[in-house]
Specification:
With 758 residues, the chain is an alpha+beta fold. The protein is built from 28 helices and 28 strands. The chain has five domains: 116 residues, no CATH class; 100 residues, no CATH class; 82 residues, Type II secretion system, protein E, N-terminal domain (GMP Synthetase, Chain A, domain 3, 2-Layer Sandwich), CATH 3.30.300.160; 139 residues, Beta-Lactamase, CATH 3.30.450.90; 278 residues, P-loop containing nucleotide triphosphate hydrolases (Rossmann fold), CATH 3.40.50. It is 35% helix and 25% strand. The longest helix has 16 residues. It is elongated.
Length: 758
């Protein structure tokens, strides 16, 4: 080669040239004589990505220096496998030795402005092991799991998801081949659809799972196993990609930096600008492996981008803090009520604020919509005593939160407004009243079930249950354990019998029953339901609403259903012995009957119904199973962290589960690799550490031993022991199982199950 260097420029061009003077990076420029025209030109290093240097153009030797193997990607997208010399004291860039022996140049100088990304070629597991965060055993285990996921066939996934035996899939493929229905373009999924084993939606879901599993990285697998947390993985990735790791709790972004990106870009990319000095912008990300982020940022920021790494939880909190979305805040509206209405408390009782006043109308509407937006299940309107303010509480994830306190002068007007909206009598203040409000919001119908109750002091409380128009979930989405899911499907597949779903109010019984009906709902099956109210609708179901004022009760509707050729009957609630007896008789005459009851446990349900006057022999023959359930709060996915429990915590979990059954049910052994999850608290979960809810279940199957015990009127404790021996897991057992899965924690399970530590 006649020339000394090859320049890769920021605009994508390459120039072959001779050095017009020795290259010194500290000068921030390179002066060369261009090979194409012989002209001498000086390039500022801000215009250069890298300088590829022939051996004759430099006298540097780095063989004795410590090196790391890396891949450097320039802003033009070119990739260079190089050995980077450690501890280089240069501000304008760094040197690397080319690892491609076929190229004429050996030494490359990369400019600071010209590098888009650099990453060590070491595996992330090696970095984690070097930092003492994981063991070699954990890495091998995760790599083996990664290999299994990547080699997993579509048929295996469909078999797991749809509970299809492998033999059924192989038989369908073999039959399609014999019948000559298989073309060269036909895939396994198409054959299974053709055979009627899966639907198009189920196939698409399986393909999605297969695609995501194949892309699962080793770091994510280690997090899923509870070996490391997100912060530890990101610290290792920061080392790999040569990026600083920052703690956003100690960093305050500058106003100039915060203004350099539009708010929608910040939310879309989940990044946080930290510093802008006019030449470069420092931006925090939790996705250092996403090469598209710096490219997207350059589109909006016409300056050099320097990425730093921070956890997604810290970035999300900071975004909410520095880029608050312009949403309506209920407290702002209340603070804005006109001053002339805020009269002194002594006159408040005498003041007349009309329920038709525009501010009252707007206030009630905003409270209702705010509850819906915040995913509350109930809104409580609670007038205070004398000078105490009118209190608004939302029940979110099963827990009540005070969201606002309103001057007491507005209490009568607000309750009257709620009565008007729900078509109740505003003059009646001595008796309870029930009604409903329907609001349409963004093409969604929101129904509020209203209950107004008189309280002491001539006041009235109102509680609104929010019922959004929703579609039923599949049984697979109901968080049932694998054994409970198989057992529940087996009793639902029976042609006749009686199935109960039990638990306290608000435990998700109706949701579970509708998931069961979705499983049964086909064109060959006629399904009738009687509910109060109809909360979930399904195509194909004939659904009836209770109307007590005209005599349309559960018992009356059930008698009508028996004359309307049913296959399956769902009764919203067993409210009296007449309904229960009719339901049992219906189940004994060839119908599958599903219903709910307010009892605490599955064995207790059997005793309760016999005490209500059910014949134990008929009941034993009719009963297929009882599913008891509760709703426990989930740990917030954004901030929960893994930890290694000490022996005392583990022993307590085993003791609460029941040590005898814990090991028989395949409970995890205590080991250094055991990880549970703990709650932390963040902006997303309002500092509680919980977000959303998960169901825990107790499925009581009527086996021959159970039937015999029911006929002999066995006590609840005796039924419980027999049921556990026959495969039942109690509510507390299922809850502990979900603790070991990292879904919730022990404190929540103990509270939900009303379990007292010994």
């Amino acid at each position: 080669m006649k020339y000394d260097v090859i320049l890769e420029l920021m605009d994508g061009r390459r120039e072959e040239a001779d050095l017009a003077r020795p290259f010194q990076p500290a000068e921030n420029e390179i002066r060369v004589k261009l090979a194409r025209n012989g002209n001498t030109h000086t390039f500022h290093l801000s215009k250069v990505c890298c300088v590829m240097m022939m051996p004759k153009a430099h006298s540097k030797t780095f063989s004795s220096h410590e090196q790391t193997l890396e891949e450097v990607i320039t802003v033009t997208g070119n990739r260079y496998p190089v050995a980077i010399i450690k501890d280089q004291q240069l501000t304008s860039g760094f040197y690397g030795l080319s690892r491609d022996l076929t190229l004429p140049y050996k030494l490359i100088f990369f400019t600071t402005h010209g590098v888009k990304l650099r990453q060590e070629k070491r595996p992330i597991g090696e970095i984690l092991e070097e930092k003492g965060l994981v063991t070699h055993f954990s890495i091998d285990k995760a790599l083996n799991e990664q290999k299994i996921l990547r080699e997993k066939r579509l048929g295996d996934i469909i078999s797991e998801q749809q509970d299809l035996p492998h033999q059924a899939i192989e038989n369908a493929i073999e039959k399609a081949n014999r019948d000559g229905k298989v073309s060269t373009q036909m895939k396994v999924g198409d054959i299974l659809i053709e055979a009627g084993l899966v639907t198009k939606e189920q196939l698409d879901k399986a393909l999605s799972i297969q695609g995501s599993d194949k892309k699962k990285r080793i770091g994510r697998l280690l997090i899923d196993e509870g070996v490391i947390n997100e912060a530890q993985l990101l610290m290792a990735l920061a080392v790999k990609f040569r990026l600083p790791f920052v703690d956003l709790l100690t960093v305050v972004p500058t106003k100039k930096a915060l203004a350099c990106l539009p708010i929608d870009v910040v939310y879309d990319l989940l990044v946080l600008p930290l510093e802008d000095d006019g030449k470069r912008v420092v931006v925090a990300t939790s996705e250092p492996t996403d090469y598209s982020i710096p490219d997207s940022l350059r589109f909006y920021i016409k300056r050099r981008i320097e990425l730093v790494v921070a956890t997604s939880v810290q970035i999300s909190r900071a975004i909410l803090k520095y880029y608050p979305k312009e949403e309506y805040r209920l407290e702002d509206f209340i603070d804005g009520l006109s001053e002339d209405q805020l009269i002194i408390e002594e006159e408040a009782e005498k003041a007349e604020v009309s329920e038709s006043d525009s501010q009252i109308v707007m206030l009630v509407n905003k409270i209702l919509m705010d509850g819906y937006v915040k995913k509350a299940s109930d809104i409580h309107f609670e007038p205070g005593q004398r000078e105490q303010p009118f209190q608004i509480r939302y029940r979110i994830d099963g827990v009540c939160h005070v969201v606002q306190q309103i001057p007491t002068m507005f209490k009568k007007a607000i309750i009257s407004r709620i009565k008007i909206m729900s078509n109740l009598d505003i003059s009646e203040r001595r008796k309870p009243q029930s009604g409903k409000i329907i609001i349409r919001h963004q093409n969604n119908q929101i129904e509020y079930r209203v209950e107004v109750t008189p309280t002491v002091g001539g006041k009235e409380d109102a509680v609104l249950r929010i019922l959004t128009s929703s579609k039923p979930l599949s049984l697979e989405e109901m968080a049932l354990s694998e054994s409970n899911l198989v057992s529940l499907k087996s009793i639902l597949d029976q042609p006749y019998g009686f199935i109960l779903c039990v638990g306290p109010t608000g435990s998700g019984k109706t949701t579970t029953l509708h998931s069961a009906l979705k499983y049964l709902n086909t064109s060959e099956v006629k399904i009738w339901t009687i509910e109060d109210p109809v909360e979930i609708t399904q195509e194909g179901l004939r659904q009836v609403q209770v109307h007590a004022k005209i005599g349309l009760t559960f018992a009356e509707a059930l008698r009508s259903f028996l004359r309307a050729d049913p296959d399956v009957i769902m009764i919203g609630e067993m409210r009296d012995s007449e309904t229960a007896k009719t339901a049992i008789e219906a189940s004994l005459t060839g119908h599958l009957v599903l219903s709910t009851l307010h009892t605490n446990t599955a064995p207790e349900t059997v005793v309760r119904l016999i005490d209500m006057g059910m014949d134990p022999f008929n009941f034993a023959d009719a009963l297929l199973g009882v599913l008891a359930q509760r709703l426990a709060r989930r740990l917030c996915e954004k901030c929960k962290e893994p930890y290694h429990p000490d022996q005392q915590i583990y022993d307590e979990l085993v003791q609460i589960y029941d040590a005898q059954w814990f090991h028989q049910h395949g409970g995890a052994n205590y080991s250094p690799d055991l990880r549970l999850m703990k709650r932390i608290g963040c902006e997303i979960c309002n500092g509680s550490g919980y977000k959303g809810r998960i169901a825990i279940h107790e499925l009581f199957i009527s086996t021959e031993d159970i039937k015999k015990a029911i006929r002999h009127k066995a006590a609840a404790d005796e039924l419980k022991i027999i049921a556990i021996q026959n495969g039942m897991r109690t509510l507390i057992m299922d809850g502990i199982h979900k603790v070991f899965q990292g879904i919730t924690d022990l404190e929540e399970i103990l509270q939900v199950c009303r379990y007292e530590r010994k």
